[in-house]
Amino acid sequence: MTATFGKLENETLTLEPGLNIIEAPNEWGKSTWCAFLLAMLYGLDTRAKSTRTTLADKERFAPWSGVPMSGRINLNWNGRDITIERSSKGRVPMGVFRAYETKSGLDVQELTAANCGAVLLGVEQSVFRRAGFIRQSDMPVTQDDALRRRLNDLVTTGDESGDGEKLARELKELKNKCRYNRTGLIPQAELQRHELEEKINERYTLEVHSRKLKERLGEIKTSTQVLENHLKALEYAEAEADASRVAEARVLRDRAEAEVVSLEEICAKQPAKEEVERKIRAIEAYREDYAAAQLEEAEMQAQPLPPVPPELFRGMKLQQAGDMVAEDCQRYALLTQKKPWLAYYVLAWLSLLLAFPLAFMEVYWGAAAAVAVGLAFGILGMRKQKSWRRETEMLEEKYGSAYPEAWQMLFTAYEEEQRNYEQALLDYRVFRGDLDIQHTFLQKQRESLFGGQSPEKVLEIWLKMQKNWESYQQACREYQRAEKYLNTLQEMANPPVDPPAMEDHLTYSTEETERLLNEARAEQQRLQNRLGQYQGRMEALGDGDGLKEELQTVEQRITKLEEIYAATTIALDTLAQARQELQRRFAPRISKRAQELLGAMTAGRYDRLSFSEDLSLLAGAQQESVLHEALWRSEGTVDQLYLALRLAVAEELTPEAPLVLDDAFVRFDNDRLRSALEILKQEAEQKQVILFTCQDREKRFCAE
Question: Phi-psi bin for 397: left (phi > 0), alpha (psi -120 to 50), beta?
Answer without folding.
Answer: alpha
